């Protein structure tokens, strides 16, 4: 079992990573501070893992809230079900919410915890690759709005993150690939050595080799924990975790949430960001091809969806959360392994990349 810490002073918390961590009550119960516990999960994950989790909580008063499955349900209306469950069971400020599921369940549970009675504690038990390497760590919580991804939310850190790699056995291949997109992101933004490791080990990851998966999850969480510890609320460096997301969120919003998976949209978005970085003279064409090749080996898209126009991108990107004083800010690559967040780029180059990549 591996352990990392997200270092946030007196709000620091552990990330436990390994096979079988969800069979170990000692990893969970110290982070539940009172009797009331509410497990939030969804209709796909509940039949697979809810009983396993409940078995660790025999000494607690446990309720569960089972949400519908899908990005399309990551909204304020679905959140009502969590508040209904908590209020009907008379949960008070000492309750602990536990998110058992992928990033959708994690983001919604965290946001419910941030809001319920003005803030209660929560624990993340991520069950997808994407949530194990990214969404369960760092305290970004929230829901989508029809006009933009994650537009309603809060920063609210969990008490602990418990990652059991055994749970990935039931994950569909398409979801594995989507998670690998965010893993590749870390190599690109801050860890060139990891990028090189990924080039050598992508086949193992795709074959679900346990050692490779544990290594990639641990390294991704370590990279994310470092960034979050430096800039918890994204006043600066944390925005590098958004590589590919300005384009990717535009794809998700334009298509309707759930058509493309988040990781798929981010993959295409990272190629768009890489192409722009190349056009601006930072990374080479060869490096863009290396990035594309790695994503393609993970069965990820490297082009935007057919029919999406430059104007479709620009109108949604205009409401991106990183926009400052009406100016678009993008995460670009200075090198493979070094991202920067900037509004100081030649806008005509963005137009050229969009025109070149959008197949209408
Ligand atoms: N908060 C953050 O920092 C952050 C970071 C990255 C992504 N996100 C958000 O995370 C979401 C994407 O998360 P995701 O990729 O985990 O998608 P998801 O939560 O929709 O899960 C993917 C699918 O896998 C199913 N599933 C989950 N665990 C399973 C398991 N062990 N076995 C079988 N099926 C399983 C789910 O029911 C779902 O159908 C997006 O909403 C994205 O915006 C948030
Ligand atoms: O943790 C972060 O910071 C990230 O940006 C991680 C992203 O992978 C994630 O998709 C996040 O939800 C995006 O946040 P947003 O603020 O751009 O909505
Ligand atoms: Zn993401």
TrEMBL record:
Cofactors, names only: NAD(+); Co(2+); Zn(2+)
Residue stretches making up the 3-dehydroquinate synthase N-terminal domain: 65-177
Gene Ontology molecular function: any one: 3-dehydroquinate synthase activity
Catalytic reactions of this protein: 7-phospho-2-dehydro-3-deoxy-D-arabino-heptonate = 3-dehydroquinate + phosphate
Binding annotation for Zn(2+): 182, 245, 262
CDD domains according to UniProt: DHQS (cd08195)
SUPFAM superfamilies: Dehydroquinate synthase-like (SSF56796)
Domain spans labelled 3-dehydroquinate synthase C-terminal: 179-323
Cofactor: binding comment: Binds 1 divalent metal cation per subunit. Can use either Co(2+) or Zn(2+).
UniProt-annotated location(s): Cytoplasm
Gene3D superfamilies attached to this UniProt entry: 3.40.50.1970, Dehydroquinate synthase-like - alpha domain
Principal cellular location given in the protein's record: cytoplasm
Binding site for NAD(+): 69-74, 103-107, 127-128, 140, 149
Record InterPro entries: Dehydroquinate_synthase, DHQ_synth_AroB, DHQ_synth_fam, DHQS/DOIS_N, DHQS_C
Pathway(s) served: Metabolic intermediate biosynthesis; chorismate biosynthesis; chorismate from D-erythrose 4-phosphate and phosphoenolpyruvate: step 2/7
Alphabetically ordered keywords of this record: Amino-acid biosynthesis, Aromatic amino acid biosynthesis, Cobalt, Cytoplasm, Lyase, Metal-binding, NAD, Nucleotide-binding, Zinc
The enzyme's E.C. designation: 4.2.3.4
Function: Catalyzes the conversion of 3-deoxy-D-arabino-heptulosonate 7-phosphate (DAHP) to dehydroquinate (DHQ).
Family statement: Belongs to the sugar phosphate cyclases superfamily. Dehydroquinate synthase family.
PANTHER family per the UniProt record, alphabetical: 3-DEHYDROQUINATE SYNTHASE, 3-DEHYDROQUINATE SYNTHASE, CHLOROPLASTIC
Protein name: 3-dehydroquinate synthase
Organism: Endozoicomonas gorgoniicola
Gene designation: aroB
